[in-house]
Amino acid sequence: QDPAWLRTLSRRLGWIAVPNLSIIFITLQVLGFLLVLSDQIWVVRLALVPERVLQGELWRLVTFLALPLSLSPIWMIFTLMFLYFILNSIELQWGAFKTTFYVLVSLVLTICFSLIFGYPVTQVSDFVSTLFLAVAALFPEQEIQLSFLIPVKMKVLGWFALAFLAWRLFQGSWMDRLFLLTIYSNYFLFFGPSLLSTVREWRRRRAF
User: Fold this and answer.
1) What's the chain's Rg over C-alpha atoms?
2) pLDDT given for residue 146 in this prediction
3) What one-character DSSP code corresponds to residue 143?
4) % helix / strand / coil in the chain, to the nearest 5?
5) How far is Cα 146 from Cα 129, in angstroms, rounded to an integer?
6) How far apart are CA 127 and CA 32, in angstroms?
7) Per residue in 143-172, pLDDT tens?
8) How far apart, in whole angstroms, are the C-alpha atoms of residue 208 and residue 203?
């Protein structure tokens, strides 16, 4: 059951719910991929560059989501298929409002962080990672075919993703760490308590 604060937000802000977010994100990705494929300069034109936004290029607040996850046509197809699977799985489990709110927490805080600290956003792989981590937490026992050959449970990939995130937090500069904590804020907000509970249980069993 959802916590009380989320149920309250759902009643008061239900109008922000956007169904089929996967279609919107995939459309942006396809457009960005075609533009960057035609000319690499589009990476700079689409990116969230705070100085350019403050000069009036407000479209960057949205177009950074079009920065392609891959420049390989074949890998892009598989990436978009996986992205569609991730977002649809979340929406089927949570509904449009909760899914939209989860997405907006990360995106709005990331945009605010970028503008306040002058931190450019030139890729969206971390944002997609927050979506993947949500699916891994919601469907831990579900298996996917890694490289179309090796069956791996989502929870295993989720722990690897968290370990990689922890390594980046350890290795990065303070500004990079703050950025990562900001963009992954949706995951920590929604799954942080259960994650801490799992870690405590693991440590208790190990100590025993």
Assistant:
1) 18
2) 72
3) E
4) 75, 5, 20
5) 16
6) 16
7) 887 766 788 899 999 999 999 999 999 998
8) 9
